[in-house]
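thread: overnight batch results

M.L. [08:02]
morning all. the overnight job finished for the chain we discussed friday. pasting input first so we're all looking at the same thing
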Amino acid sequence: MTVNALGIYEKALPQDLTWEEKFNLVHELGFNFLEFSIDESDERLARLDWTKEERTAFREAMWRTNSRINTMMLSGHRRFPLGSADSKVRAKALEMMQKAIDLAVDLGIRNIQMAGYDVYYEKKTVQSREYFTENLAKCVHMAAEKLVTLSIETMDDPFINSMTKIAHYKSMIKSPFLQGYPDLGNISAWPENNVVEDLENNIEHVAAVHLKDTLPVTPTFKGKFKEVPFGEGCVDFEGCLRLLERLNYSGSYTIEMWTGTTDDAVEEVKAAKRFFDQLFEKVGITQEPVKVTN
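M.L. [08:03]
and the structure it wrote out:
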């Protein structure tokens, strides 16, 4: 029986709370940690430039509530991609990564989840792939200097949508500070993926796992990668979790939801927690005990 930490994505929680209120709510809802978001919005990108006082206040809120942040979800590279045709955008992407690594060090975050896009809003080309690969190597070097792990997420995009593709980049950029962050929903939605083999053959590259449901990509449907109710999509959660338990995966799981702007956010998170509590018990996964606030 494995023991794993279970976290909740920041955007799942009510957005009008203070950090201390959010951390307390994380514990009340039965989670071990919060996943921190740096998305493409101006509001969250501004976190990369937090002052020393703002970073101190955040850390103190964590410490007062016996909390931690396992992972920073750095999805801001959708807006400023590493593979952009624009040299100024690529420079901005590298600057963002350095700032994210420095912020992670200051906040005690050990793992930065990278979005596996060469480009998102631009046209994909051989050149965009080459720019991405060159800059990924630079990012890994920056992270290694600070002993921070970069984990590429399997995406809602064919560029990197499997652990097998992440393993290919690891074969070119050999570093323990480059790993993978499989999203069970994203892997399951792509028809070319054999989910069992993808996880089984690459378990040594898995740093963390996202729990999310999806609707599959078909010849006539582009798939649905967000806000699919758990149990109503294509993910065989019981099978995947049973597989990960057999492989002795001991990293963390994070439930990914975007309910924070809804009136019943807390109730929806509670329902998701019950869904996975039942599955964890069924397949033999024990959740790490939740620390209570002093």
